[in-house]
Every structure is written in structure tokens, then in C-alpha cells.
Amino acid sequence: MSITKFLLVFAIIFLPSLLLAGNGQPAAPPEGFSFLNLLRGMLGMAVVIGIAYLLSSDRKAISWRIVGIGLSFQLIIALAVLKIPFIKTAFEYMGMFFIKVLEFTKSGSEFVFGSLMDTDSFGVIFAFQILPTIIFFSALTSLLFYLGIIQKIVYGLAWLLTKTLRISGSESLSAAGNIFLGMTESPLLIKEYLEKMNRSEMFLVMVGGLATIAGSVLGIYIGILGGDNYEGQLMFAKHLITASVMAAPGAVVLAKILVPQTKPIKSDIKITKDDIGSNVLESIANGTTQGIRLAVNVGAMLIVFIAMVYMFNFLLLKIGDWTALNESIMQLTAGRYEGLSLQFILGYSLAPLTWLLGVPAADMAVVGQLFGEKIILNEMVAYFSFRNSLAAGAFVYDKSIIMTTYMLCGFANISSIGIILGGIGALAPGKKTMLSQLGFKALVGGAMASLLSAALIGIILG
């Protein structure tokens, strides 16, 4: 990226919000709909689209038809889930399904771990109460894949995306598959197409994987945010599922702005038949094995990344002591931050962007902190911080809580670049150079897709 582009991006993000913010925090907006909130949300979406336009590899080739239809899809999904009763009920039933699966997982875990599952006596032990969810969801996904249920749903969504957005069949299959599968599992649906994909098509596969989350970890986030409260679980389940669905057209929008399609496409849709087992039992066993690997990987990453956060904060607090910044930061934030820390830096550097997207001013620092943690660490760490912020009463507005749920819903973080390069690179060795060239740009696209969803939800919530 040239220095001119960087300065333009910086100016677009920060200058408008700093001018509007004045010398202190802007007054918190009144509850309910207001045209100011509508304009802010639209301005935030324009900022996201504007940044993508500046970073585009070929601005003249951008199809604004795709952008318009993709954004319309996101808006229709959001309005349907929040405002149309029978659609809202359907998504709540999907949420109930995930909650019931959490209960099934708990039953299996209690048989293995016994009294260690008693949160009243031992509290929440991540390895026992949370990680088993990944294993069971992975086995269940493998079973549904073996039975052909996931393929039928994905095929229907892919057909819709191909006909309306006019993207290739392989791109639409990958985008639709990412709603249910992870960023390394979804490409298996189009394994035989990967080596033949052009730059724009491969980029969409990457952005789609980074903009969404897998069903296997969706259950974890419902458990983390909802806790033992059924109503809380149901509320977060509905919004997390909606966020994952909205991310599919959002990923198409950002991908086709950042790396536009310039070559003819093939619209045929054919799901690759991948061997996941010769019978039901083998498919469950294979899914369980994959789930164990994923659970161990998640646990290990959390240990390392959370330890890194504490290490950096220790060093930053020492710097704050030497420079007398800690006391000033405590006064500036009214005690919300104890001194110079990673959370403080992320919160206040990204606060203007979150305000532009429609987050109430009273909550913009905490939302900025959580979004920053997602990008530089991972969404799992961010969701844990989110839960802690909820428990501490850090949010003033419910709207901020909902918008944060959408912002954090996606695999777009620095460590995921390596995962997606390794996963897709193993399936398409001839594309490794292309994948490495597009890695950081795909991260930007995936992150901005989540911001688009959050801004749209913020506009509807008022």
C-alpha cells in the first residue's frame, strides 16, 4: 500500500469522527430511532466501502451492481430477522437447536468429567465446559454432511447467489458453505475447482472464510455470551446465526471491490464429493477426530494469546509508570482503564470508527477495544473479553451489545491468515504464491464484512 493510500484511509476513518467528537466524548444519543443515527450508520457503511474502493486492485472493473445487490441482501436478511415475525421465529428455532445441542454436549461431558462440570462448585472450567462443544458440533456436522443435508442447503443458497450476484458457481458454493463450515472445511466443497480459479475467485474464497465462523465454534460463542441463562443464550444465538448468514453476501461485496472479476465466469454448480466416511459411524468418528484437533488448537491458542496480552500489558504498565501516563489515563477514562494497556490503545484508536458505524458514544471505546482484540489476537479472545465486559456492566446501551456481537463474528484475524494459507494451499499447491500475495488483503476484506453487518444492524435498531 502506498503512503498516499494509507493517509487517505486514515483521514477517511478518523478526521470526520474527531471533528464531530469535539474535545470530549460526544453526548450519548437518545434511545429509539433518530435521523442522526441513520446518517451515522450510512456514513459508516460509506467509509467501509470507500476504504475498499481505495484499496481496490482495479477500480474501473468494480461491478457496482454486485455491490448494490449484495448490500440489499444483507439489509433484507437483517430486516427479516429483526422485524418479520415468522422469520424471527424461524431464526429463534435455529437458535433453540444450537442451545439444545449445548445441553446434549453437557450430558456427554458430565459422564466423562463428573462433578467437574458443576459450575456452582468449581466455576467455569474452559477445558471441561467449553471445549467439548467443539468436538460434538464437529461430529454432528460430519454426520449431517454424510447424510447430504448440508449439501442440499448449501446448493440452494449457492444457486441463489449465482443467479442474483452473477458470480461463478464455485465462488457461490464456497460463500454459502462458509455459513456452516470453517474456512478450511468449506473449500473442500470446491476442491476440484481451486487450481482453475482466477485471482478474483480465489480471493472471494479467502474473504468468505475469514468473514464467517464455523458451526462448530458457533455453539461455543452462544455458551460464552449466554452463560447458563436460557433467554441470553437464545438472544445471542439468533444474532450470531444472523451475523454468519449476513456475512456471506457481505464477503462477496468486499471481495469484488478489492479484487474485481475481470475474466469470464462459469456458473455451473457442482459440489465435490469428498470422502468423509463409508458409513454413519465412520463419519461420526472422523468428525470427532477433527473436533479433537480443533479443540486442542483452540485451547492452545487461548493459552498463548491471553498470556501474550498479560505480558504486553505488564510492559505497557511499566512504561506508564515511568512516564506518569497511568494516572492520566485513569483520570481520562474515569477509572475504566487502570493505565496504559493494549485494551486502552485499541479502544481509543478504534473508537472513532465504531462511532461512525453507529455505536453510541458512551460505548465506542469498549467496542473499539473488543474489535481490535479480534483482529490482532482472535475472535475467541475477543468474545471472552466481551463476556467479561458484559459481566462488569461496561455497556450503557443494548444496541452496542448487539452491534458488537456482529463485529466479532468472523475469523478475520492475523493468525487466521496462516491457517487459511495452509488449508487452501494444501488443496491447491499451485496457488500458494497467489494465496500469500492476497493474505493480508483478505484479512481486511473479512474484517470489513463484519463491520458492514454491524452498521446495517445499528441502522435498523436506531
How would you concisely characterize the structure shown here?
With 462 residues, this protein is an all-alpha fold. It is 74% helix and 0% strand.
Topology (elements, then pairings):
Blueprint: H1 3-21, H2 35-54, H3 64-83, H4 85-113, H5 119-122, H6 126-129, H7 131-146, H8 149-165, H9 169-177, H10 199-211, H11 215-226, H12 230-258, H13 280-323, H14 325-332, H15 342-357, H16 364-376, H17 379-391, H18 398-407, H19 414-427, H20 432-461
Helix pairs in contact: 1-2, 1-15, 2-15, 2-20, 3-4, 3-12, 3-20, 4-7, 4-11, 4-12, 7-11, 7-13, 8-9, 9-10, 10-12, 10-20, 11-12, 12-20, 15-16, 16-17, 16-18, 18-20, 19-20
How would you describe this structure in keywords?
462 residues; mainly alpha; 20 helices
Structural class: mainly alpha
Nearest-integer average pLDDT: 81
Order of helices and strands: HHHHHHHHHHHHHHHHHHHH
Count of domains = 1
| Low-pLDDT stretches | 1-32
* Relative strand content: under 5%
Radius of gyration: 22 Å
